[in-house]
Automatic annotation (TrEMBL), chain A:
The chain crosses the membrane at residues 37-56, 102-122, 134-156, 186-212, 233-255, 293-316. Belongs to the binding-protein-dependent transport system permease family. It comes from Arthrobacter psychrochitiniphilus. It is a multi-pass membrane protein. Gene3D superfamilies: MetI-like. Its main location: membrane. This is Sugar transporter. Keywords: Cell membrane, Membrane, Sugar transport, Transmembrane, Transmembrane helix, Transport.
From TrEMBL, chain B:
Coiled coil: none annotated. This is ABC transporter substrate-binding protein. It comes from the Bacteria. It comes from Arthrobacter psychrochitiniphilus. Belongs to the bacterial solute-binding protein 1 family. GO terms for biological process: maltodextrin transmembrane transport; maltose transport. Transmembrane segments: none annotated.
Amino acid sequence: MSTQFPVTAAPSLQDEKPTAPLMRKKRVSGASRVEHWLYLAPALIVLIALLGYPLYQLINMSLYDYRQAQVSGSAPLVFTGLENYRILMGDPEFWTVLRDTVIFASACVVLTLLVGGALAVFASRLRPWVRTVLFAVSLGAWATPAVTGSAVWLFLFDSTQGLINKVLIGVGLSGFNDFSWTYEKWTAFGLVASEVVWCSFPFVMVTLYAGIQAVPTETIEAARLDGASLPRIFYSIMLPMLRPIVIIITIQSIIWNFKVFSQIYVMTNGGGIAGQNMVLNVYSYQQAFAASLYGLGSAIGVIMTLILLVVTLVYLRLLKRNGEVL
Amino acid sequence: MKFTRTLAVAALAAMALTSCAPPTSENAASSQDEATGTLRVWLFSEVNQDPKSKVVDDTIAAFEGKHKDVTVDVQYIPVDTRAEKFKAAFNDPSSAPDVAEFGNTDLASYVTAGGLSDMTADIEAWDEGKDLDPKVLETTAIDGKNYGVPWFVGVRALYYRTDLLKEAGVEVPKTLAEIETAARAIRTKNPDTLGISVGGASQFSAMPYLWAHGGSIAADNGGTFTSGLDSAESRAGITAYTNLVKDDICPPKTCAEFGGNASVQQFIAGQAAMTIGGDFNYKAVAESEFKDKFAVVPVPGLTAGSIAPAFAGGNNLGVFKSSKRHTLAADFVKELASKKNQQAMFDAMGNLPTFSDVQKSVAEDNAYVAPFIDTIAAGTNFVPITDTWSTIDAKGIFTGMYQQIVTGKADVETASADAAAAMNKIFEAK
């Protein structure tokens, strides 16, 4: 396909040339438009191959009764239209999982932003060597693979041998003797959420810290001379200037936390007692791979993609209305 | 503009042509039956690999000596990632082996996937085949056809600490009800010890309770299944088992999450007075610091002297449908699963043989396997032989039922009715 580019592109480039000086606008939509696409082509081809095709297959699979027997050719492949979606919509477990995922992900997003933001402000006021230590420590958390981090947290929060319970008992909270953090639904979610926040706040902190450093000191000095209080400086000057960064990290956090898999899978042993800690991504894995219901698993994947797309679009739209340009 | 449109149309056309349906592969039985060449074999890798490799290597040497121009290429694959490996082999037959070892609970889903070859004729023509334990051979059969040769069996029995039972003044339990009272007595005496370590997720410890009470997981009505979990007998079995996961025996906060391994680990760590463990756990227990203070008996039934039907776990050897050397592959399976080699595997690994006569002889020579062999002899049982069982298992419907009961989220009535309904839905969806 790529060999076609020059052939199609060259003549149109020639055609447009004479009219160029008079019709500037037209030139843009003609010759240089092709040029735009030419420049974009390598990236587009890579994107279509790596993102477009899998997404296409995901949607495609979700429209079939597609199980292991169909994949390996021992049963006929049947197009079932929206049947997989109908099954999902009629399954109360799906709705519970969806609700839990939304609550869990939202809590993770808010906590990550709060912790990361607070530490970023904190870091900008610290002595350089303290800041270096803080960053080095946080980067350690950031660099830890999710599975490793989850395993370490499980050790820390072990009901009998864990350090956390020992410390809590040590300070006189005897209720934590043999306290199981993974037994109750919401303590288990809380435990996983704290691990998720622990491994994702460094990104927020570093990014926001960079943003704070980029705020011109003159502006803040001017505000201070005008008699603005510290909170006022923060809300009226820092925050608006940091807004583009905040937008990006919020969207990224939403996407990341909505898609949490490893932490839940490792820390609650694949979804918790009687599946109480299931989130969408683990649910989709369970359906698609463990239970070999690839069609149904794909349908969950499509729904997740749609939800994230909508969330992102609505968020961008809201910001655009506020006159913000990314 | 025109170019963009052309590109878009071309891309769409390409997609439509290449794949208007998701990809599938062909797993038709090979029409070829070559007698020479390379025979590819997949076996599970073990924590302690050397003894297994030695038996297998000896078998290969003998097999290659008997068959001209044949080389056997063995690959050891990890048990944990077997699902991916086998699915990949079914999806791409050209990368599939000829012979493979697989867990007997996986058999039905592999057969439905069209991956395994019918071995009924091979077993019938095999002079040693008639001595295979019929109950165990049954676990390889779907619609009267056998899709594998049982290589070894695994059954669970009751492990107990002789010192702790003595200290609490209780006898070795002779019925299921006595297990509960003994366990409670021990924990009352020793509040830090689990009376019996069993778990909400250790399904193979729960099954003997279900079956001993006359219950069933599902009834096979000739190809279609109906869940039996909501019958009165099943409910009695579920109640008896979940009564063990109580604060005065095995507190749910600790035990609700236990699978089979975690339960046995508690026993090995000295935290439990009893557990339901497999013959495959024996070595680890015998190497623990309680090696002189434990004993094993079959899990008793409802009445003294009876034995609860155990789950017949174990692994089979089978031939892939896509193999171009079915006869040769089947010969290798028979060689590796022969009486001589099962005896060798028992000596090397402690794997229980699948031949009734070999089982008797190893039990006579090794006192410790007697409770397990007695359990097998008393009659074993199995999960429903249908590929839908792997879906039920993956969704955790069976274990989820026990976990809901022991955590107090649902009573036996509700949880068993829900589980039965969920299972029936999956059986019907087939």
